[in-house]
Amino acid sequence: MAQEIEKKFLVIGNDFKKEAFESSKIIQGYLSSVPERTVRIRIRDQSGFITIKGIGNQSGASRFEWEKEMPLNEAEALIKLCEPGVIDKTRYKVKTNGGTFEVDEFHGENNGLVVAEIELANENDAFDRPNWIGKELTGDKKYYNAMLMKSPFSKW
Amino acid sequence: MAQEIEKKFLVIGNDFKKEAFESSKIIQGYLSSVPERTVRIRIRDQSGFITIKGIGNQSGASRFEWEKEMPLNEAEALIKLCEPGVIDKTRYKVKTNGGTFEVDEFHGENNGLVVAEIELANENDAFDRPNWIGKELTGDKKYYNAMLMKSPFSKW
């Protein structure tokens, strides 16, 4: 349970893949995609997670977050209850001075979209931006995963 | 994680209180009150719980259910994220031949409403009905707690 501070950016090109030290496959659905109270079920590799997020502050960088791990079979059963549509993506991790970028390469209906997020202790903490980091998307609800499920990138 | 089989009844009078072997105070809110995927946060005495339920079968007696306990402070934080309105009730437990009735006496906007539920291993299992058990409400969505929050008994 924490107040999560994250900044999100568009990613340009594929160079980030050369710098990644880890990648994993993510499938996720939403029991609630209402921004004030999203309830997400995620399968990452062979583990399941439930994550509840509140709405962000004015800048969109800080959101309340609660997460618990669960067995894979429970997550698979809960994914079936989710709202129609599912997010399918590969997550890469890239170290930079000041933190670690999580870079999400979307598949399926969001194919072509790649975004990077960095978690910070304080909203104004400094961090290095690799040259594949594009414009900032922090707080832009269109890029929330819950929104990408309903209004996918391929239909923009 | 289970398929839950429950029958629900209206309760007549206050005689059930004399037969109860336990009672506890329950406060609960909903992160999602959509019947296909309700997400409930409950505080019972000093414990927190998250419970996810799917929609029932045709008779309404069998619903998918997933539940996890959590610390009280986490449940208190999550209740604040819930949809407006909260259910406040006292739950009594009453043993009968064939099972245990959970009798919910509602307060606040649902004051005056008392319902009893019994959990069964099979939908057609027999059980004794005390004389304070009134008409069957199984599957009647109006009596779902998630619905009582939006459309409380005092406004029927």
Averaged pLDDT of chain A: 91
User: How many domains make up the 3D coordinates of chain A?
Assistant: 1
Order of helical and strand elements of chain A: EHEEEEHEEEEH
Biggest beta-sheet profile of chain A: 8 strands, antiparallel, barrel
How much strand of chain A?
A: over 45%
> How would you sum up the global shape of chain A?
globular
Approximate helicity band of chain A: 10-25%
Provide keyphrases for this structure:
homodimer; 156 residues; mainly beta; Hypothetical Protein Pfu-838710-001; eight-stranded antiparallel barrel; 3 helices; 13% helix
Summarize the model shown.
The first copy, chain A, is mostly beta strands and 156 residues long.
Describe this structure in words.
Two copies of one chain form a homodimer. By secondary structure, chain A is mostly beta strands. Chain A has one domain: Hypothetical Protein Pfu-838710-001, CATH 2.40.320. Chain A is 13% helix and 49% strand. Chain A has three helices and nine strands. An eight-stranded antiparallel beta barrel of chain A has the order 1-5-4-3-2-6-7-8. In chain A, a hairpin with a 5-residue loop joins strand 4 (47-56) and strand 5 (62-70). The longest helix of chain A is centred in the middle third of the chain and has 10 residues, at 72-81. The radius of gyration of chain A is 15 Å and the shape is globular. The mean pLDDT of chain A is 91. The A-B interface holds A 1, 31-32, 34, 36-37, 39, 50, 52, 54, 64, 66, 68, 70, 73-74, 77-78, 81-83 and B 1, 31-32, 34, 36-37, 39, 50, 52, 54, 64, 66, 68, 70, 73-74, 77-78, 81-83. Chains A, B: It comes from Pedobacter changchengzhani. Chains A, B: The active site is at 30 (proton acceptor). Chains A, B: This is CYTH domain-containing protein.
